Amino acid sequence: MGSFLSPLSIASVNVAIPAMARALQADAVLVSWLPTIFLLSNVALMLPFGKLADNFGRKRIFALGLCINALASLGAFFSASIEWILFFRFIQGAGSAMSFGTGMAIITSVFPPARRGLPLGLNTAAVYVGLTIAPALGGLVTEIFGWRAVFLLPVPLAAMLVIVIFVFLTGDWRRDRYSPFDWVGTVIFAGWTLALVIGLTGLPQLPNILTLLFAFVLFGVFIWHQSRHAEPLIRVQMFRENRLFSCSLGSALLMYASTYPLTFLLSLYLQYVRGLSPLDSGQVILVQALAMALLAPVAGKLSDRIEPRIIATAGCVSVAIGFALLSRLDFDTDPAYISASLFCIGIGFGLFSAPNHNAVMSAVDAREIGVASATINLARVSGNLIGISLVNMLVHLLLGEQQITPEKYRQLLSTVNVALTLSLCFVSAAALLSAARGRRVNG
């Protein structure tokens, strides 16, 4: 249920963005930061909160993250400007990092390797059920109650979950001994995240190029620091020692970079270019997540018996076909064609995600399950962040700091088409990495 909450918070708001932009008279660049800033804090704080959860208890951090998510949602609801909404979205992303980053670690601590595929598949399905319901629910709430109401959607669920967790969930899943916290590594990693997003968003201007170069330097410093720290946030040696682990995470990062901006892009395209309502747009978009939710548990269960590489790579190919179809959007594209393309993407991602997670968890020994879980989530949100940052760059280059009016629809369509072609390139690279990852070693 906690895994359901985060995508609900993201995807429901994405559908309400055009109505929000009109009401607050926000330009295209500020609007494009709405999904980005959530991920910015999510990526920057995922590893630190994972480390704190190991020390102080995963259940405690998980529940605190739900509380922060709910309070930030209330703050966004009452905000009078786009800038304040962006601030509360940043806080909401931090709460999501606390809960989403520890949830999979709790699950993998409970189930043995031979029985891990189905629970991981169900956890993945919960994410996709959130993505399935969110666009239609966000569109319906926006039409009936206005765009502000979408920020209230996570609040009652988060409150209920906190009560259930402390009443019924026994255990806290923490380390036997306290592990010193790496504050220096945390600051370096947060600096890398911020520099990466700012650098990508404003390309090809010189200050942004320099910022992006600085981001690469910070990433190198972070790897160097982690490799020499006695208690690192993440043991970077795992990437060199284990090809199955590194290739699986690499393919995950590329797949999430390709698919995360899709709801945002299609929400703008369907409502501005095609003139659909928020509700109708949500119904078109939900097809993808519905296919994911239906297939993920089945694929996860199969990955306990069939080599995950085979299932996950087939999923990459299906997603690539879907993006190839979507990259041909024009002013008259039938919404049914878009739904069919999204269904193909949903089938592929449903085949990819749970088997890929299973491959990562099978690639490490029991002592490093928590690290592997945090790293999967980090690959996911880092991919999301890279994907949406590149879309922000395209918005900056092709649309600029102006409101999206009918005169700008041609530029908006060009932005969507270029972004979808870029996503197709990411998926193609992910398929190659997935096929090259090697066989799983059980036990």
Automatic annotation (TrEMBL):
UniProt xrefs under InterPro entries: MFS (IPR011701), MFS_dom (IPR020846), MFS_trans_sf (IPR036259)
Highest rank taxon of the organism: Bacteria
NADP as UniProt keyword: no
Compartments where located: Membrane
Transmembrane segments: 31-49, 61-80, 86-108, 120-141, 147-169, 181-200, 206-224, 244-269, 281-298, 310-329, 335-354, 375-399, 411-433
Keywords, in A-Z order: Membrane, Transmembrane, Transmembrane helix, Transport
Entry-linked PANTHER family: MAJOR FACILITATOR SUPERFAMILY MULTIDRUG TRANSPORTER MFSC
UniProt name for this protein: MFS transporter
Organism the protein comes from: Exilibacterium tricleocarpae
